[in-house]
Amino acid sequence: MSTKANPGFDDYGALGQNEPFFVMMARRPGDAVFVRMWAAEQRELGENNPRIDDAFKTADEMDAWRDAHIKQSNADEVMLQACRQIHNQLHPTTSFQSCVEAICLMRKRALQEIAILKQ
Fold it and tell me: What is the full DSSP assignment across 23-68?
């Protein structure tokens, strides 16, 4: 996990001169969802490195931090929590991360379909 005090992966050093970038923060509802969606997309594209596992872990820690400090929730968080509860009942001995990846990809595809229908 990356914090201001503990930067984690050095993404800034890899930036090109004047290359745009964007920061996700735990305080903003939905940012953890986008971190999960990014990680799931990278995995689907064939990437398999520690940064992707760290992204999923960081998204969980973002949710926990926001719950402890802000006490807000949104539809994505409620859905993720419901899925976690169902997963724990159906698959108590397996990791929830693979289910999260599938949920993120389904959400992405659903949003793409909605965008097509709105055209």
Answer: ---TTSTTHHHHHHHHHHHHHHTT--SHHHHHHHHHHHHHHHHHHH
Averages of pLDDT over runs of 10 residues in the chain (119 residues) are 66 80 84 90 89 89 86 68 77 73 77 82
Length of the chain: 119
* 73 lies in some domain: yes
Whole-angstrom distance, CA of residue 64 vs CA of residue 3: 14
* Total number of domains in the chain: 1
What is the helix (H) or strand (E) element at residue 115, kind and residue range?
Answer: helix 97-118
Residue 21 inside a domain? The answer is no
Indicate the pTM of the whole model.
Answer: 0.58
Q: In sequence order, what are the residues at sequence separation of 6 or more whose Cβ sits closer than 8 angstroms to the Cβ of residue 15? A: 21
